[in-house]
Structures are given as C-alpha cells and as structure tokens.
Write a structure and sequence with these properties.
- Helix 6 crosses helix 7.
- Helix content is 36%, strand content 18%.
- By secondary structure, it is of the alpha/beta class.
- The chain is elongated.
- It folds into two domains: 94 residues, Cobalt-precorrin-4 Transmethylase, domain 1 (3-Layer(aba) Sandwich), CATH 3.40.1010.10; 111 residues, Methyltransferase, Cobalt-precorrin-4 Transmethylase, Domain 2 (2-Layer Sandwich).
- The strands form two sheets. Strands 4-5-8-6-7 form a five-stranded mixed β-sheet.
C-alpha cells in the first residue's frame, strides 16, 4: 500500500526512501487512475519504464467481478496499491482490494507516507484526543445541511473533532453551507494543499470565517469542526 503525494512534485520530498525503493522493485500496480498513476510512478523513479509495468485500474466504477479478478495478480508476486492521492484505502476504493487480500490470506503491508487527515488534525489546535473521520458528506443539498447540523450536535455532546472531506468541485458549496448552518462559536479548520508549497491551514470560529472570505476551489482540502 503505497502513499502518493497530493500534488505533482518530487515524491522524495514527502515519501521515505523505503517506499521509493519498494516502488522501484515492483512491476505490477493496482491504481485508481492510469494517467495520474503513471505520472506519480515516473516521478518516483520509474521514468522510462512505465510501458514495462503491469497496471490495473480499481476505482468507484469497478464491479465486484473485476475486483475479484485482481486476486490472480498475486499469483505472480507482489502488487503495489496506489490511490489517486494520499493513502490507499482511506476514503478510497482500494479498500476493496485490501479486503480481498485478507479473505485470501495475502499479506498486506501499509507503507509510511503523509496522511492529510492526521496532518490537518495535528495543525488544527482542535481535540486530538477524540475525533472521528466522516468521509464525504451527502452530495444533495438538504441532506448535506442536515448532516452538518448532526455533526455539530455530536461534536458538542462528545467534545469530539469531526473530520470530513469533499469532492474538489463541491468544496466551495460545502464551505458556504458550513458558514450558513453552523453556530458562530463553532471552530472550523480549513486545511488545503497539505505538504505542498502553498499549503494553507487555519482554524477560526465560524463567526470569524464569515468575515474572512476564503475560496477553496478545487484544492485538496480537509475540513475539521469542533463545537
């Protein structure tokens, strides 16, 4: 399980040598998106060798039969799992391949790399003793607004930081809803482009955010709320 950077820059800046060494010795990879994976693997040390690699796609559109068929890859040796960005199997369809490996008794080896969720929590100043990752909030407007209010209530009752993410093209819509439907005193962390040169991590109350306009756009972003 190979972490990949959030941006297109030298992977050696965020991935330790053992991970890069593992990438160099592998010939078979299961990836979320071919084009992105090719760029990452090339930058990680396989430049000029991409055409020799055995790449297979596993994404949200993969069928159960297609996922089961990937099991035969392990008959030939080790397989690397690479997600679109970040950690494989965390808010990522790669978890289906990991589950398959456990069912078949195949060793699973998670490798060290940056986790945007943990880095955001570390830098937030919010509760790191009790927290929950909620993944993606509902896409439909009314359902999303209901979920926001429920998370705020749970955060207040449990004194628990609530972490969630969004599809990049819906980031600003989510931010708008957070500012409209959260209480003014609730603290909210916006953590964008973590590990990249233009990283932005800031925690303010919702009331303060309402007077501090921020456009997230399509930047990778982690949201953290603590009521």
């Amino acid at each position: 399980m190979i972490p990949s950077p959030l941006g297109e820059y030298d992977p050696a800046l965020v991935l330790p040598p053992p991970v890069l060494q593992t990438i160099m010795r592998l010939k078979c990879f299961v990836v979320e998106e071919l084009r992105t994976a090719r760029r990452f693997l090339s930058a990680a040390g396989l430049r000029g060798q991409i055409q020799t690699l055995d790449l297979h796609v596993l994404n949200e559109h993969s069928t159960r039969q297609e996922i089961e068929a990937l099991g035969s890859l392990f008959d030939k040796g080790d397989v690397g799992l690479v997600s679109e960005a970040g950690l494989p199997a965390v808010a990522d369809p790669g978890s289906e391949l990991v589950a398959l490996c456990h069912r078949r008794g195949i060793e699973v080896v998670p490798m060290v790399g940056p986790s945007s969720l943990m880095l955001a929590l570390m830098a937030s100043g919010l509760n790191g003793q009790s927290f929950a990752f909620r993944g993606y909030l509902p896409a439909k407007t009314e359902e999303r607004r209901t979920a926001i209010k429920e998370l705020e209530h749970q955060s207040k009752v449990l004194n628990q930081s609530q972490l969630f993410i969004e599809t990049p093209y819906r980031n600003d819509a989510l931010m708008d809803d957070l500012l409209k439907h959260l209480q003014a005193g609730t603290r909210l962390t916006i953590a964008m482009d973590i590990t990249m040169p233009d990283a932005f991590i800031r925690t303010l109350t919702v009331g303060q955010w309402r007077n501090t306009p921020v456009v997230i756009g399509k930047h990778p972003c982690v949201f953290i709320m603590l009521a």
